[in-house]
Amino acid sequence: MNSGQSILVTGSAGFIGFYLTKALLQQGHQVIGIDNLNDYYDPQLKTDRLNDLDQLVASDTLPASASYRFIELDLANRSGIQQLFEAHCFDIVVNLGAQAGVRYSIENPHAYVDANLVGFVNILEGCRHNQVKHLVYASSSSVYGMNCKQPFSTDDRVDYPISLYAATKKSNELMAHTYSHLYNLPTTGLRFFTVYGPFGRPDMAYFKFTKAILEGKQIDVYNNGEMKRDFTYIDDIIEGVMRVMSTQPKPVDSDITSAQAPYKIYNIGNNQPVTLRRFITAIETACGQKANENLLPMQPGDVPITYADVDDLMADTGFKPSTSIEDGIAKFVKWYKDYYEK
Fold first, then answer.
1. Which of 68, 104, 112, 165 is catalytic?
2. Torsion sign across C-alpha atoms 23, 28, 29, 31
3. Which helix (H) or strand (E) holds 3?
4. Residue 205: CA count within 13 A, CB half-sphere
């Protein structure tokens, strides 16, 4: 991807958005970041991520072509998003802004409709009317639901979501295909598999477990720790996203449909499912303390395994995630101690 491109990153104060914005600036791009800074989790983390980006810009270490501006804006704000696109000529849009979380979607479904459906169509409309060259957007491994075939392939049917969050992400893929077909808008969806790492989301298990273990508190372990997850370290996610941004999809012939659209879906996962038990052991080792476990049954909306087939990603971009759970967790725990014990 040539430096100096104008790029919109939605959810730029979020976990993945923060790291992507930093990487894009280091490559010399002009980045506009937006986020509504909601309180789904501790807003201080989002503020500190933004402060980190401000310090990077002020450090005078970036290429001369790099620039950055943050705008507090909600994706569901139709007129605000329209004005944003009209005021800037974006080459690429990366839509990472969304209401996240499987379990929270059971408690607060309207938040997912507003951010993930209304917000996404606002982004699609902005791209359509303003000659955006490529829209890359976050989907999720949750779209695979209770699929039995392993590993999960983007060729698999994903018509049976078991959470509203998953349903909104599958809807995003369908909406993107429509715009690709009708308006020749290149779109690429990324099904992320359990992203973790420093400065991550405190609603995620690795964050909660680390906090509880270091504080000597009990952790809830579902399904006796027998679930498997394709944990993917944040650096691998960012490398994958950056490569996909440079890989514009082209219309392809299909024996399933006559529709031809510049549309693509990739899995970005570690391609190595890890049991919850091994995951907990990695945290215990990094913390230097044993966990006090409260064993519980499987939760509603949870799935027994996630496992990414990344052959397409490897074939098209030459990249495959590779960070081991032990290495990734060690880096997270070091960050956690530095951040919360300072």
1. 165
2. positive
3. none
4. 21
Neighbours of 207 (CB within 10 A): 17
Q: And the tokens for 34? A: 């937006």
Q: Structure tokens of 49? A: 């991520």
Instruction: Kindly write down the DSSP assignment for every residue of 34-66, as one continuous string.
Output: EE---SSS-HHHHHHHHHHHHHHHHTT-S-TT-
What is the CB neighbour count within 10 angstroms for residue 141? 24
pLDDT over 90, % of the chain: 85
Q: Is the peptide bond before 151 cis (omega within 30 degrees of 0)?
A: yes
What SS3 state is found at 188? strand
Mind listing the pLDDT tens digit for each residue in 186-243? 999 999 999 999 999 999 999 999 999 999 999 999 888 889 999 999 999 999 999 9
Tell me if residue 340 is catalytic.
no
Question: Where would I find the H helices in the chain?
Answer: 15-26, 43-58, 78-87, 104-107, 109-112, 119-129, 164-183, 205-214, 234-245, 276-287, 311-317, 325-340
Measured between alpha carbons, how far is 147 from 151 in angstroms, rounded to an integer?
10
DSSP code string of 12-40: TTSHHHHHHHHHHHHTT-EEEEEE---SS
Give the pTM. Answer: 0.95
β-strands 292-296, 218-222 pairing: parallel
d(CA 332, CA 327): 9
Confirm if 46 and 13 have CB atoms less than 8 A apart: yes
